[in-house]
Amino acid sequence: MRWLWELDRKGLCSVLSRESLKHWNTWGVGGVAPLVLRPRTFPVLRDICVAAKQEGVPLHLLGEGSNVLVPDEGLPGWVLLLRDDPTPPALLGTRGPLREFRVPGGVSLRRLVSWSLRRGLSGLEFALGIPGTLGGALAGNAGAQGDSIGDHVSFLEIQEEDGVVRRCARSDLSFAYRTSPFQKEKTLILSAGLLLAPTEEAELRRRARAFGDLRRNQPRMCKTAGCVFRNPPGFSAGRLLDLAGCKGLVRGGARVSPRHANFIENVQDASASDILELALQCRERVANAHGVNLEFEVRLLGPTP
After folding, report:
1. Catalytic site residues?
2. Angle at CA 230, nearest 5°, toward 224 and 235?
3. Same-domain pairing of 99 and 73
4. 61 in helix, strand or coil?
């Protein structure tokens, strides 16, 4: 363990001991992790992953902490924070009318969308208002209105839990609705190739405005983690939850958003158990009312019900 503190001393990796994970997820819930690590370089990241595997230490990944529910018991082992990467996208070349960029997995999705709009590049407007990192968005194939991040990928550079780095061509990747081949916690998305299209300013503004309007009915200025459930085929999860009378339901400090029934808000120092029990109550209501079994879109880092 001493080597980790030496990395901290050298500024290569910040090390936080007995850290509350409430500070590192958008719901603001969850218990303590023995160590929270924030590596500053890829070689250090690799060394940490290799050491964890060799020593049998559980390893957990967090980007900006959206789309996850951290249990009240906390997480054992080490938590890796992969976020706030300041490296700008790098132009690799062109593919027909498209431009190809290499983008680090730890970049903020909001920052990336803003960057693309300022440069007149289309392809990421669907992600307006979606929190998280590019790596997290790719792992869950984030999207909206039929468009998703996986549609714009040309390659991925990933690191397996044994530290081996490999490049995956587009032909090797299979993205589907809110799923990808990289949802295993121990597979790290180091960078991605993204294909974006130069677009006239008026058209780009129109597309951005259309996707921005989709977020107007979502809760703002409160602690949420994004949509709790996936849309089942042919249905809107939010609409099913609304029709089942879930809006405004409360459990402890958690509340189903009065604005959008597929969001649960931490309104009064909720626990992770409050949120999970409320989500299960909503899922049961939908099953009883509509015969549809909703699947979680948020990732449950504790025991799965």
Report:
1. 178, 227, 297
2. 125
3. no
4. strand
pLDDT, mean of each 10-residue run, the chain (305 residues): 93 97 97 97 94 94 95 96 94 97 96 96 93 93 90 95 90 89 80 97 90 84 95 95 98 97 97 98 98 96 74
Instruction: Indicate the pTM of the whole model.
Output: 0.92
User: Angle at the Cα of 70 (from 272 to 61), degrees rounded to 5?
Assistant: 170
Provide the greatest CA pair distance for the chain.
58
- Residues 137 and 105: their CA atoms lie apart, in Å, by 9
Alpha carbons 5 and 1: distance in angstroms, whole number: 7
The encoded tokens of residue 283 equal: 């899922």
pLDDT score of 217: 84
The alpha helices in 150-245, defined as continuous H runs, are 201-214, 237-243
SS3 assignment, position 278: helix
Which pair of structure tokens corresponds to residue 139? 């792992």
Predicted local confidence at residue 211, as pLDDT: 86
Instruction: Give me the pLDDT at residue 191, please.
Output: 97
Question: Tokens 């999705």 — which residue?
Answer: 109
- Assess if residue 226 is contained within a domain: no
- pLDDT score at 184: 65
Residue 67 maps to which CATH number? 3.30.43.10
Q: Are 52 and 72 in contact (CB under 8 A)?
A: no
Residue with tokens 């595997």, as numbered in its chain? 53
Instruction: Write out the residue range of the structural domain in which residue 135 sits.
Output: 90-214
